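Notes to self after the call with IL:
- keep both proteins in one doc
- input above output, always
- annotate only the second one for now

Protein 1:
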Amino acid sequence: MSPHTEAGPAEPAVERANEAVRHRFPFDDTRDLEDARRGFLGTARDGVVKDADGRVVWDPDAYGFLAGECPATANPSLWRQSRLCSHHGLFEVTDGIYQVRGFDLSNMTVVEGERGILVIDPLLCAETAAAALALYRAHRGERPVTAVLYTHSHADHFGGVRGVITDEDVAAGVPVLAPRGFLEHAVSENVYAGTAMCRRAAYMYGAALPKGERGQIGTGLGQTTSTGAVTLIPPTVSVTRTGQTETVDGIRMVFQLTPGTEAPAELNVHFPGHAALCMAENATHNLHNLLTLRGAQVRDPRVWARYLTEAIDLFAGASDVAFASHHWPTWGRERVVEFLSTQRDLYAYLHDQTLRMLNQGLTGPEIAERMELPPALERAWPTHGYYGSVSHNTKAIYQRYLGWFDGNPAHLWEHPPAEAAKRYVEFMGGADEVLRRARRSYADGDYRWVAQVVGHVLFADPDHAEARALQADALEQLGYGSENGTWRNFYLMGAYELRNGPVGTPTVTASPDVIAALTLDQLFDALAIRVDGPGSWDVDIAVRLHIVKGDTVTVRLRNGVLTHVTGTGPAAAADPDVEITLTETDLRALLLGSLRPADLAARDTVEITGDPRRLTELVGRLGMPDPDFAIVTP
C-alpha cells in the first residue's frame, strides 16, 4: 500500500454498508426538504464572505456538489442532512420573523419590531453576521438593529455581534439580552481550555478539509465554522428566571431558562404576538452532543429532557411554529408538540438506559455498543446522530456519573499512550508484523481494528511511513461510512494530517473581545493555568497590586501555584516583594502581555515600591499554550 496525499475511493465494505443505509431509512420522506425550502426569499448573488484583508472566511457555494447524487464515499443519511443544511439565504419563518440560514454554522434570526429589528444569535464572526444582515436588508429594507439577543454562551451565537451593532449603539440604548451566567461561561470556556478546544475543533468541524465528495461535506448541525473575527459585546439585560418577560421595540418575549442543557447558560423564548417559539439549541433536527468532541463539560440529559417537557407545557399550545439557532423550523402545533416530545424522549432514553446498564456493571464502551434506540425514535430523522451520536453520548453519560475510571484495577495505572504503544508493538512481534496483520484486517473491512492497532505503531514510531499511510487509509474509510458529520470530519482530518502535515487551528475563539470580557478573577485564573509548575517549585514571589479606584490584589507564586487574593487579609502575603499602584487598564495590559513589566515605571499613572524585577521574574514563569499540538501522533 503506497503512501499518497490525496483521498482515495471507498472500499467495497464501505460501499456495501452505505448502500444498506439507503434501504434502512425512509429517504422518500420529503417533509424536511419542504420545510428547509419553505419561505425562501432569496440569497446573495455571490455568497463568498471575505475579511478586511480579502481572505475568504465563508463560502456556501463550495457545497454546491451536494446537489448531486450521494457517492460511495459518504453515508447517504449524512449526505441528506448536509444537503438540507446547504440551503442558504433569507427565509420567512412567520409574519415578522425571518432567518438567514447557511451563512455560518448557525442561523441568525431577525424579528421585526415597531422601529427596527431584534437580532437573535448573530453567528460566529463579524463578517458573516454583516453579510447576513445585508441580505435581510436587501429584501426587507434598511431597518436599524434595536436589540440583540444571545440565546446561549457558545461562540457561534454571539461571535458576530460587531457585524450588526457597535459599542456606540449600545451606549445609545440598544439592549443586549442574554441568560443569567452568559458572560462568565462564554469567556471562560473559550479561554481556560480554549487552545485545546480550538485545536480539536479543527478536527470536529473540518474547516481546513477540502470540500467535496471525499472531503468535508458538513457537520450535521450546519456546514462548518466560519473563520473570521470572533467578537463579543457584553449583555446589558440579564434573563434570570423562567417566566420573565421583556418588551423591546414592541416585541414581547417570554423566557424559559434552561441552564445545563446544550450550554451552561441557555434560554428558550416565546413570542406571543407571533405564536412562535425559539428553542435556541435545545431542540434541533439531530441528536445533539452531551459531550462535544472538541471538549467541554458533560451536559445533563436528565435536565435537558425535563426542560423540553417544560417547554411543551409552557409554550407548545400557543406556538404555530418552532425554530432554533440551527436547521429549519417546524410548523403546525401538532408537529411542534411531536417534534419536542421526540427530542425529549431521545435524551431521556439515553440517560435512563445508560444508567440501567451502568448499574448492571457495564462500562462506557460496552454500553455504547449495546445501546439501541426504540424503533419509533430510530425511524425519526431528527433523532439521527449527525452531530452528537448514540455512541459518544452514552460514554459521556457514563463519564458524568462515574468519571474516567471503569472500576477495573488493571485500568487504574496504565502506561501513557506512547509508552504503552512501544510495549504493544514489541509484544505483537514488531511493526512489520503488526502492519502485515493490519493489512489483512483492512482487506476484511475491519477498519476500526486497523485504526486501533496501527495507532500503536504510530505512537511507538511516528515517522513510520507505511504505518502513516495505512492509518490514513483506515481513518478515511471510517469517515466515508460515518453518519455523524463530526466523526467523518475527525476521521478525514486525521487522514489529512497524516498525509499532509498539521493544519493548525483555523478558528480562534479567545479573541480580544472575549479576553476583554474576563473579570479580573477569571484573568488571574487564566494566567495560573500557564505557570510552569515544575520549573517554579522553589520560587516564592509576592506582588501586591493596588488598583486605582478598585481593589487591592496580592498575587503570589509559591510551590508552583499562582494564587491571587483580594484585600489584605490573612490569605494575602504579609510582606510582598513589590507593591504597584496602577489603573485596571494598565493591569489588564500587563497581564495580557501588551505592556511589559520593564515599561511600567515609565508610566505616569504607575507607582512602584520594592523590587520591580520580581514582577518581571513572575511574568517570565508563564508559558504559552501550543495551538498546533499533535493529535494522531504522539
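Protein 2 (the one to annotate):
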Amino acid sequence: MSHEHVSYLELLARGAGTEAYDRPVLLARASGAGPEALADLEEAKQLALRVRAELEGRRRREAELSALFATAHDLAGLRDLDAVLRAIVQRARSLLGTEVAYLSLNDPTAGDTYMRVTEGSVSARFQQVRLGMGEGLGGLVAQTARPYVTDDYFEDPRFQHTRTIDAAVRDEGLVAILGVPLSLGSQVIGVLFAADRRARVFEREQVALLASFAAHAAVAIDTANLLAETRSALAELERANDIIREHSAVIERASEVHDRLSELVLHGGGVHDVADAVSEVLGGTVEFTETGAGAARRTGGHAVREGDDWVAAVSAGGETLGALVLHGQPELDPVDQRTLERAALVTSLLLLARRSAGEAEQRVRGELLDDLLDAPDRDRGLLRERAARLRTDSEAPHVVLAARIDRAAGDAADPDAGGRESADRQRLWSAASHLAATRHGLASARDGGTVLLLPLGPGEGAAELARQTARSLGGTLREPVTVGASAPVRTLLDRPDQVAVAYQEARRCLDALVLLRRSGQGAAAEDLGFLGLLLADGRDIDGFVGRTIGQVVAYDRRRGTELVRTLDAYFASGMSPARTKDELHVHVNTVAQRLERVGRLLGPDWQSPARALEIQLALRLHALSDAVTGT
C-alpha cells in the first residue's frame, strides 16, 4: 500500500474535511509522479470521499436516532410540557443545522396561532407574533396537513402574505423556511419550523427528520393534556374529600369568627381589632390596607387570591375604603373566604362610623371658624367654650390662611370644569380639615377655596407656616395648592373681629401669588416685598424698610459711613456713577467703592428693576421715618 493511500486512511480516521483529500494528489503532482500514479491517486481519493460520505451519513443518522430516542425518553417521563417542547425544538435546530427553529400552536378560543417555543430567535416581535388562521407558510401547512418548504420566503406566492407576518419574518431576517404539521389524528394543532437567514435547500431526509420531531411534539402535547385532565380530576376528588372531612371544623370556625366580630362591634372595637380576630381564626396574618383592593373591587367585593395572599375589598356605597389582606394562607376554602368577606363588611361599617364622627367634628370646627369670620359679636364666653371642646388654644397666636386649587385658564371652556371645581373644593376642604385637626386649628370651605386658622409653633412665622401648608395640602392632593397667609392674630377671642380682617389680608396675598404666577406656593405679605406692604392690613413700614435696606442702615450707624446717602444720590442721578460723584462732591472711585459695599450687603441683584424699585421705596420711607422722629 503506497504512502498516499495510507494518508487517505488517516484522513478518514480523523474525520478531516473534504478539502484535505486534495492534498495527497497535489503532493504527488509536485513530486513529479507519472500519469498512472496520479490516476491511481485520484481513484483512491474518490473512493475515500465516498467512504467519508457514507460514514458521515451514518453518523448523522445515528445522531438523529439518538435525538429521537432521547425525545421518546423525555416523553416517557413527561413532567413539564414546556421543557419537552423546548428540547424538541433545540434538537431539530441542531440536527438540521439551521439558525432558527420554532413551534407554533393553534388557539381555538382566539381563532389564531401563537408562538409557543423559539430557539435562536433574536427578535422580540417575532417571538410574540400571533397569526390569523390560514396566513403565512404555517397557514399553508395547517390547511394541507403536509410539509412545505420555501427557499425565499418573500418571493414565494404559494401562501398568503400579511403585513404582520412579513414584518415579523423580516425583523428576524429569515429567508429559507421549512414547516411540518403537528397532527393529532386528522386535526392539525400547530406547526414545527426550521429556518435560516440565508437561501438554502432542505433535503428530503431533513424534511422527514423534522416531521419525526413534529410527531413527537404532538404526542407530548396530547400526553400533557391527558395528564392535566387526569390531575384536574384527581384534584377535584381530593378537594371534595377534604371539604367533606373538614366541613365540621370550617363551620365551627365560621361560627367562632361571627361571634367574635359581633362582640367587637358591640364593644366599640377598631379596624385592627377585627384584623387580629380574623388572623387568629384563619391561622394567617390579616392586615388592613388603604390600597390594593383593585382585583377584589372588580369581582364585586368577593375575596380573591393575589399570589399567595387573599384580598377582600372594604367598600361602602360604591366607594372603596381599603382592603383586608390575608397572608400565610395561599389555600383558602370557600367558607373561610366568606369569613374574610364578612370581616371586610364589618371593617367597612367601623370605618364609616369613624368617618361620620370625624366629619361631624370637622363640621363643628368649620362652624366655629364661620362664626369667627361672619359673626364676631357672638358671646365670647361661648366661643371660648366651643374652642376648648375642640382643643383649640385660643391664647396662642394664630395665622389665617386662604388656600385654593387654581386651574389653568383654558380649563374654563371644558364642559366638565364646573364638576371638577366642585370636586376640587370638596377634596381641598377634606385635606385642610384633616390638617387643621392634627394641628388643633380650624378649617372651613369658603369663597371657592378653604380658609384655615392654625396656631403658630415656637419660633414659627406666618410665611413659613404658609409654605408648610402649601406643601402639605399639595402633597395630599397631588396637585399644586396656593396658600396666602395673614400676619399673626394675637387676640383670637378677645377681639374676634380681627379674624375676618386677617382673612381678607390672606385672600389678598393669595390673589397676589396667582397674579405673580406663583401658583402652588405659600407666602405671607412679608414675602412679597413692597406688594406685601400694600396688601398687609397692618402696613408694617418698619418691617419692610428693615427687610429691604436694614443692613445698609445698620452699616452706616456702626461705621459712620454714608451708604444710604450715596444710594439716594445714585438713584436720583439715574443710576449714573459720574453724576452721583458730582452730587456728592466726591471722587468717582469713592462712589464705586460705596456701591460695591452696598452690593455685598444687599446681594448681587440689588440693581435689578424689581429690587431697585423696592430699595427706592424703602429709602423714601426711611427718610420719612427719620423726618418724623427727628433722627
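Annotation: The mean pLDDT is 76. The CA atoms of residues 96 and 206 lie 6 Å apart.
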